[in-house]
Amino acid sequence: MSIKDKIKKFVVEWETEDLKEYCQTLLKSNEATASGLLKIIGDIMKFVGDQFEEEEIFLPELIGSAETVKAVIDEILDPAIRASGEEKKSMGKIVIGTVESDVHSIGKDLVGSFLFSNGFEVYNLGVEVTADQFISKAEEIGADIIGLSSLLTMSMVFQKQVIEALEKRGLRDKYKVIVGGSPTSDDWAENIGADGWADDAIETIALVKKLLNISE
Ligand code: B12
Q1: Is residue 102 annotated as part of the catalytic site, yes or no?
Q2: Could you list the residue range(s) of the whole structural domain that residue 57 is in?
Q3: Is the domain of 78 the same as that of 108?
Q4: Residue nearest ligand 1's atom 20 by CA
Q5: Cβ(110)–Cβ(149) under 8 Å?
Q6: Which residue has the higher pLDDT, 58 or 99?
Q7: How far is residue 35's CA from residue 172's CA, in Å, rounded to a whole number?
Q8: Which of 25, 46, 99, 136 is deepest in the core (most CB within 10 A)?
Q9: 113: CA distance to ligand 1 center in Å?
Q10: Count of domains in the chain?
Q11: Is 104 part of any domain?
């Protein structure tokens, strides 16, 4: 069984302890890197999300998988990135969250972990984050980028609201604003005056590096 198939089995069966142990073994034996494992987990969560949508699995199964993945990222992969020196010196500060009225967290958390594993300081504000909360945090920590996630067509308007609130406070030029989430697009980003859009966590790294003029 391939590494991906084995991880997928643990994720869909919510075998959190087994998955933690397996990831740890892979890391110790250098068979995989923490960022490599994050990429595999991202693909698996996309698969699980699609299965839910196609009614092949039900809500408790979806949530169980998401919780397994979150525990493994929080307890094994993020700490491994810190400890192994994969984490480079901070390349920039990013405040990320899911916008007001929207509770979808899985994709945004993956984007946050990818950014973290690529050397960025990530401040993950969670879900249903208001414009005020995004801006207060960005001001407090001196962020370079504000990342807005939206999975609902109905919540996309709140991405726009954050940009308008920045403009109102004369802070728009202080931060690069990026948007993402399945109903969003490049056109939408342009339409609301965001600085960029990315389709997934990997593209987000390239986007953020481009916006911060980081060449690598
Ligand atoms: C999981 C899920 C839920 C879970 C969320 C659990 C959690 N903790 O996140 C629960 C069950 C709670 C849920 C609830 C609802 N959901 Co829902 N949900 C999904 C589902 C199945 C998967 C989403 C997911 O996690 N995908 C996996 C991740 C890895 O992918 P992702 O989120 O797209 O993220 C990637 C990119 O988009 C991007 N990205 C994401 N964020 C960001 C941010 C930035 C800055 C950048 C650059 C990139 C980026 O990178 C990510 C990683 O690669 C989708 C359908 C689907 N197949 O996508 C529906 C879906 C998003 N849900 C939907 C709906 C309608 C709802 C509900 C309204 C249902 C209801 N009637 O109650 C509620 C909304 C509650 C609320 N107020 O928010 C609709 C939205 C339709 C729309 N366009 O408006 C979808 C598309 C299902 C459908 N086809 O109808 N949902």
Answers
A1: yes
A2: 3-84
A3: no
A4: 49
A5: no
A6: 99
A7: 32
A8: 99
A9: 17
A10: 2
A11: yes
